Amino acid sequence: MILGLIIVWAVVILTVSPVITGLAWPLQAIFYAVAGVVWIMPLRPLLRWMELGRFR
């Protein structure tokens, strides 16, 4: 499931990528930095469940 979420996130970013290439490089850097961190948020409940055995 973790790999599936990472693959979906990568496909989403690759789909948006052509639009981002038209922006100035500082905006591109900000976008990719944020995109590189944000993918962890949906993964947190899954990782918590793996460690603790519950979602809360």
Detailed description of the structure:
- The chain is mainly alpha-helical and 56 residues long.
- It is built from 3 helices and no strands.
- The longest helix has 19 residues, at 2-20.
- It starts with a helix and ends with a helix.
- The mean pLDDT is 89.
* Overall body shape: elongated
Beta percentage is under 5%
Straight-line N-to-C gap: 19 Å
Helical region count?
A: 3
Based on CA atoms alone, the radius of gyration comes out at 14 Å
Provide the helix percentage.
Answer: over 70%
The biggest beta sheet reads:
none
- H-E string: HHH
**Count of β-strands:** 0
Q: What's the average pLDDT?
A: 89
What structural category characterises the helix and strand content? Answer: mainly alpha
Unreliable spans: none
Structure summary:
The protein is mainly α.
What's the helix and strand layout?
Layout: H1 2-20, H2 25-38, H3 40-52
